Each structure stands twice: as structure tokens, then as C-alpha cells.
Please model this.
Amino acid sequence: MKFGAHVSIAGGVQNAPLNAAEIGCETFQMFTRSPQGGPAPALTTEILEAFADGCRKNGLDNWVVHAPYYINFASVEERIRKSSARVIREDLERASKLNASCLMFHPGSAKGVEFKQAIAWCIDGIKKVLDGYAGPTKLLIEISAGAGEIIGDTFEEVAELLDGVGHPELGACFDTAHAFASGYDLRDTISVDKTFKSFDEIIGLKRLKAIHCNDSKIELGGHKDRHEHLGQGFIGLDGFRALVNLKILKDINLYLETEPDGVEKDLEVLKKLRDNG
Model:
């Protein structure tokens, strides 16, 4: 188990490895484009070589990419569904050029759509993304906090998408804050064990490829996405101690998405929890 954080790509993705190393990351997460929109900057040979060199020099051998936030495979507008599939496929190819292990994304919102139809559109869109794909990067559906009509806030919904697509390169990303807000307790050893046993029964641990590690400003079942620094939210340090030391997760890396002003301390907290048991 390695610990990392989401880091800035200001000035180009080639700066991400140094930004990660400077705060003590053992792995890291990044965007490869603006998460809010606009064309993706070119990944030239020079940029790719500089990125790889930065990873080597800083002892980093694993990293992941997060897709833009505006994706919606369940939109009532066909053009948005089509553009979502195009952008995710483009990001998947970009992540593969960077040799990222995973690309995680949020399926979208079912606002104004019957849920059955929304799920069907999501499955169809993800199938289009993966059609003919042969890169090294796995595509991951991230569990959501369940605000509004957001899709993927229960293990059952994530499993329905995974089973509906049925592609070996599709997996899952667990987010502690999102899962907690969706009603999955993570505050102590018993609850962490129970939650991941449920995950294994419904989704399957073999499909779990990454974990976003964030405390929550929202109480259990609050259905809002509000990250907090570790130990300062409603999950608490006992929950993260249990998570870090859960044997069935020993090969899964954790990625912080907390505010930059305290993320370095959060990394130190994780390392202490791992080292001290």
C-alpha cells in the first residue's frame, strides 16, 4: 500500500512528479487537462519524456489520472452523452501515453431521466469508450456521495454498471468521503471490515483498483461531497487506522484529495498509521 495525493499540473503534466515528491508522495493522482472544460493540451514527445524522467528521478513508479468533472453519460442531451464518451476515451488514451495505472471518472447525473434509462445510457457510453481500447490504463468507476440524482452512490449501482459493461479493463475506485456520505460506515475497525465485506460481496474486491482517502465534513448518510483533512471530519483517525491496516487492502494504493494547505500533514498521518499499526 502506497500513499499519494492529487497534485497540480500547472505549467504542464511534466511538473506533477516533482510536485508529488515535494510533499512526500509515494504515488500520485493528477488531471491531464482542465477539469472544468476546454481542449486538452498536447502531450508531445518532449513532455512525455520529461514526465517519465521526473518520475524516475523522484522514485515514483505508480500514478493515476482523474477525468474531468463535467462528464455525464446519463444526460438527457445526446450530444453531452456522446461528448462524455469522446472525452473519457481521449483521457484514457492520454493516461496510457503517460503509463498511468488507472483513470477514474464519475458516470454522471440522472436528473430528468428515469433511473433505468440513465443506467442503460451509462452502460452504453462506457461500452463505447472501451470499444477497441488496448492501452495499459484501467478505467475505474468512482463511487459517489449520492447528492441529487448522481449515479453510483451504492455498491449495487456500481456493480450494475460494471456487470452491464462486462469489460475486463473496467474496475472501481472507492472514495472514503463519498462512501461515508452515502451511508457506508468507516469510523472504526468493525465498520470498516463490514463495509469492505459488503463491497466484496456486491462488487468484488478484485475490481477495486484505487481508494480516494478523505475525511468527511458531512455526517454518515449526509449525501454531500465535502472532503476534510484526516482526523478532522466525521470519519476520524480510528477509521483511517482500520482502513490502512485492513489486510485485504494491502495492495491497494490510497490517494488524498484534501486541500493543499494540509495535504502534506495528511500524508504524514497515513504513514504513521501504517507504520505504527
Q: What stands out?
A: The chain has nine helices and ten strands. The chain has a mean pLDDT of 96.
